[in-house]
Amino acid sequence: MNCETFEKNIPDYLDKSLKSPLMQKFETHLQNCKSCQKELEQYNKLNEELKKLPTIHAPENLKNNFNRQLEFESLKISRTYYAKMIRIAAGFALFIAGAAFMWSAQKWIIPDNSEQLSTLQNDVNQVKTMMMMQLIDQESPSTRIKAVNYAEEITKVDPNVINALITRLNTDQNSNVRLAAAYALEKFAYDQTVRNKLIHSLSNQKDPLVQIALINILVNMQEHNAIEELKKIMEDENNLKEVRQRAEYGVGVLI
Amino acid sequence: MPFLKKKTENQSDEQLMQEVCKGKLQNAATLFERYQHRLYSYFIYLSANQSLSEDLVQNTFYRVIKYKHAYKPEYEFKNWLYTIARNNFYNEHRKKEYHANIDENTDKITTGNDGEKALLQLQEHQELLNALNQLSDNEREILLMNKMQNIKYEDIALIMNENINTIKARAARALKKLKLIYTQN
Fold it and tell me: Which of residues 103 through 162 in chain B touch A, CB cutoff 8 A?
């Protein structure tokens, strides 16, 4: 074995994966060649030092951030579940109401269906609004979240509903409720007054997930009045980097 | 519920991940704890950038949850995780410059409980780290995975989707190049 071949085999030797007869030839050359001995020593030292590179501990907040994200993802899944349940319940209610209507209509001339149906829809909306208003102040955060989700199913903009959601968005102690409120309000963001309230809320938000949610909603709605607020967020160093980046992106889209 | 917690601790990565796929997202927290420091180190040594490394760890695990449907029970979790991790690194940040002088960044690398200790340890290895930084991302990566993180070549081959002999050859070339740079200084 010559020195060039020797050097080629050093990595495998260090990994202890050099097989005979190559291994024997390697060791023989090693015993007889001083410069290769030195070469191997240098490689070995390097190899060992690489292995000794320390594991650097990730900062504490990484785990906490991830756990929050997990909560949020779990919440998204249960939101879909609740939404499905409400849809089923509402569908059932409409069916019952419809069946009752059909039975009573046999006695009179059948009136225009669409008017009756929209009355029924209003009834369903009213029921939902009532339920929502009742549940939204409850002590348990998951009940409040249920209430917020009811709101998403209400088809007409009711100022009481909007205000209840805004209150939750701005003042609820639980960040998941705040976030759920933001997403519920998205459904009503076609309304200018709602958007104005969202902008106002954004200026007081500290919670990064909520900040990002609100920024996304306002940008999606092409709300140019939000530009001022987005610029402030971009420049405020107290905000999380992701939030500032989102704001910057938003400004870019809106301008 | 202490006995439930113990159960998670005894489960393999693969078992935990399969349960994540069935909807038990909470298991991802255990997996996160098991791998966060390793992944963080991997990114730090690869990029020499603390805040980027934090983002990458979080993004990687976020993708673990988001793409859980792509995980197959026959995959070794670690390999799947590292595949996501390095894809993350290359996809999002390929265009940016990372070969910053390690001196600038060791100041920023103060973390967790061993903050100061980690800093001191890094300073000990500064010459090696400087030499490592002069390798290409791919060369540096292979050496980090095999030597520092103790990942076998078979697994690296799976992670990088390459033939194992190709990986070994690259590792040998990388080591040789590293030695040349290191001994020149």
Answer: 109, 111-114, 118, 121-122, 125, 128, 143-144, 147-148, 150
